[in-house]
């Protein structure tokens, strides 16, 4: 069966099934189980209304439970077993990871990514938000800086291969170096700094995201505060750093944490650019080295990533609960 | 009030310039890819894309195909080298000039144009800058001598790369596979999430706050955790690595964002409308279908765009949940696993493949940017 036809059938079954489920579940609830008739009509209506939220929620909860909650537990359990999955070895996989030089390199690089990418993307986003807000052609500028958001990590990596290529007739960096009289070099093979060259790609993608959100936040700042600062003789830099930035601190935090979480998921860039060679491995790409080969180690790496995300998760939940109150 | 501070002309200039610089920095890499995808393979390796509109010095080889005429005891071949059969096609489009020529493939540019060079068998050969050549030989030869030359070649923009990528490299199949993955994976979660979001936004029941917190928590669960257990699960229940598997996976992974975005939006809808509908005797199902869904269109659209971009651009889930064989590959996998390996040095093909894969997301981005921005803001700024 052609995949396209299979796709169309899936859409019909999926959408039709959803609609049918919600419609008939409601119908059954109202007409069969708790009919709003007879002597118990009032009680039945109340009962039906108590059950209804769960009918609405059930498909989403089931899918979330199966595809996101179960894997947290399932991955952890699997990480306690050996490669074949038939022998319980406790924290053996974790011990093996800790003892491995590659894991330490990946972990260290990951820390670099987690520190540098969100910081740089947020800073550049804030800068471009503030600068473009004052310009007539600011919206065009914004949309061009925002554009890389739509590009896949694989596509972005290829785009940047044309920047980093060693051949001075292809890579623009080496073309500039050649024009200045320097020998061509491969930026992706320079120890330590090659990590940063890879990070640049993710920063290039994420700056637009930070800019869009921070620009909205900047516009939401009450004008009186800025006016008062101007009357008091503050210069534009003071206005920006001392008046505006403190007022959008919480939004900056949201942007920062969102990008942090993203950094911990992105394996595509390292995978396409260097394949983890030249000491550029990070945890997500390190995990893919074990995927299909050693499920025990793969899940152990995944769980390490999960533990790294945990503080952000807790912070997010707290934040959202505070907002709801 | 910004304008007061920004009215100093120097500052306005500085702002304009720095934004221009930023935009250029952000745009240049993509432009490079775009230009390269239209350039001829030889031209790409001979000069950078930033000089694409100018002529390039390229090396050619050809053979004289003129009829010799006898003059004393010498045989003379005359003609224009650009018109010889082997290279004619390359020079049809415009003016070219010869910088150097040579007689051996190892040194194609050994002699300057216009120089008279002795051939091995005692004859001489001259190739002028305008392409005209004179070759003299002591004996007639049914084939003219092999000549190498370096010529300024006019820029050559072609669609050949696109033709190669779409036909020879199976990229058309990968394109259709990507569409096949993306569309169901975008549509199915929307409906599931919309009902759940309505319940979380407008229905009262115990444990609601806890569920919302759980959704927020699930937003950041790293996908990596899901790969091994779910692939095993899919294998156990017989789905295995298939389109059905990846649709289900994308649906599951997209739900937290969908529920979160839609709930935030629905919670902000005016209470009066919903309450007056309830007073008029509408059931929750009717309220949802008739009032909430149409009013939530902007949020539905922005989630749809997010999910579309994410599934279209995804490499990780496709690598794990789809078979790695060629006929099921999506474009990202095709590029990362196939083309980078087999066509690693063929920059024109790589650029074209990348551009084919980012064209649709860019189109969606530029036409629906409004909804995308709105969705981002609903998700992050309260």
UniProtKB/TrEMBL annotation, chain A:
Highest taxon, organism lineage: Bacteria
Protein name per Swiss-Prot or TrEMBL: Sugar ABC transporter permease
Record-annotated ABC transmembrane type-1 domain positions: 107-316
PANTHER family, per the entry: BLL4140 PROTEIN, DIACETYLCHITOBIOSE UPTAKE SYSTEM PERMEASE PROTEIN DASB
Protein species of origin: [Roseibacterium] beibuensis
Topology of this chain in the membrane: Multi-pass membrane protein
Transmembrane feature ranges: 6-29, 50-70, 111-132, 144-163, 196-218, 252-276, 296-317
Taxonomic lineage: Bacteria, Pseudomonadati, Pseudomonadota, Alphaproteobacteria, Rhodobacterales
Record-linked InterPro entries: MetI-like, MetI-like_sf, UgpAE/MalFG_permease
């Amino acid at each position: 069966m052609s995949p396209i036809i299979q796709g169309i059938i899936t859409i019909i079954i999926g959408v039709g099934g959803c609609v049918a489920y919600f419609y008939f579940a409601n119908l059954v609830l109202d007409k069969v189980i708790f009919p709003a008739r007879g002597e118990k009509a009032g009680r039945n209506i109340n009962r039906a209304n108590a059950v209804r939220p769960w009918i609405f929620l059930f498909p989403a909860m089931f899918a979330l439970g199966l595809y996101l909650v179960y894997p947290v537990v399932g991955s952890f359990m699997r990480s306690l077993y050996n490669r074949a999955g038939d022998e319980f070895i406790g924290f053996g996989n974790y011990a093996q990871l800790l003892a491995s030089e590659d894991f330490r390199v990946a972990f260290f690089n990951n820390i670099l990514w987690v520190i540098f990418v969100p910081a740089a993307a947020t800073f550049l986003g804030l800068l471009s938000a503030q600068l473009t807000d004052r310009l007539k052609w600011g919206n065009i500028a914004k949309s061009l800086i925002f554009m890389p958001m739509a590009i896949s990590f694989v596509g972005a990596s290829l785009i940047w291969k044309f920047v980093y290529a060693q051949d001075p007739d292809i890579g623009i960096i080496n073309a500039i170096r050649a024009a200045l009289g320097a020998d061509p070099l491969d930026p992706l093979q320079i120890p330590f700094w090659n990590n940063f060259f890879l990070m640049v790609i993710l920063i290039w993608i994420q700056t637009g995201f930070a800019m869009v959100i921070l620009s909205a936040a900047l516009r939401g700042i009450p004008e009186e505060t800025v006016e008062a600062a101007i009357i008091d003789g503050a210069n534009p830099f003071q206005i920006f750093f001392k008046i505006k930035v403190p007022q959008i601190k919480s939004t900056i935090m949201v942007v920062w944490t969102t990008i942090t979480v993203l950094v911990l998921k992105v394996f595509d860039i390292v995978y396409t650019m260097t394949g983890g060679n030249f000491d550029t491995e990070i945890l997500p790409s390190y995990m893919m080295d074990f995927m299909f080969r050693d499920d025990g180690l793969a899940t152990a790496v995944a769980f390490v990533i999960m533990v790294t995300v945990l503080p952000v998760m807790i912070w997010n939940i707290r934040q959202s609960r505070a907002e709801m109150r | 009030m910004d304008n007061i501070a920004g009215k100093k002309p120097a500052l306005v200039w500085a702002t304009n310039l720095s934004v221009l610089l930023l935009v250029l920095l952000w745009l240049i890499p993509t432009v490079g890819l775009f230009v390269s995808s239209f350039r001829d393979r030889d031209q790409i390796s001979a000069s950078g894309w930033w000089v694409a509109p100018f002529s390039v010095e390229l090396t050619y080889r050809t053979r004289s195909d003129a009829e010799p005429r006898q003059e004393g005891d010498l045989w003379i071949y005359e003609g224009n080298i650009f018109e010889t059969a082997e290279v004619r096609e390359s020079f049809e489009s415009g003016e070219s000039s010869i910088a150097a020529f040579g007689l051996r493939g190892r040194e194609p540019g050994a002699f300057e144009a216009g120089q008279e060079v002795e051939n091995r068998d005692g004859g001489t050969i001259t190739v002028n800058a305008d392409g005209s050549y004179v070759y003299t030989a002591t004996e007639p030869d049914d084939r003219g001598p092999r000549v190498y030359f370096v010529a300024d070649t006019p820029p050559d923009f072609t669609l050949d790369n696109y033709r190669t990528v779409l036909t020879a490299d199976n990229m058309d199949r990968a394109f259709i596979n990507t569409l096949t993955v993306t569309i169901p994976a975008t549509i199915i979660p929307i409906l599931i999430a919309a009902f759940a979001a309505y319940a979380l936004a407008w229905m009262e029941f115990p444990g609601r706050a806890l569920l919302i917190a759980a959704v927020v928590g699930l937003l950041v669960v790293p996908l990596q955790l899901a790969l091994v257990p779910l692939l095993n699960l899919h294998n156990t229940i017989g789905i295995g690595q298939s389109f059905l598997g990846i649709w289900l996976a994308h649906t599951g992974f997209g739900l937290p964002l969908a529920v979160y975005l839609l709930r935030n939006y629905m919670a902000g809808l005016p209470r009066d409308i919903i309450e007056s509908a309830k007073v008029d005797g509408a059931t929750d199902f009717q309220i949802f279908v008739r009032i909430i869904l149409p009013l939530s269109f902007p949020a539905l659209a922005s989630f749809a765009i997010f999910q579309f971009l994410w599934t279209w651009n995804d490499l990780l889930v496709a690598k794990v949940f789809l078979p790695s064989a060629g006929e099921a590959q999506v474009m990202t996998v095709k590029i990362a696993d196939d083309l980078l390996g087999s066509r690693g040095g063929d920059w024109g093909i790589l650029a074209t493949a990348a551009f084919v894969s980012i064209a649709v997301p860019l189109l969606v981005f530029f036409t629906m940017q409004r909804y995308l921005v709105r969705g981002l803001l609903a998700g992050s700024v309260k």
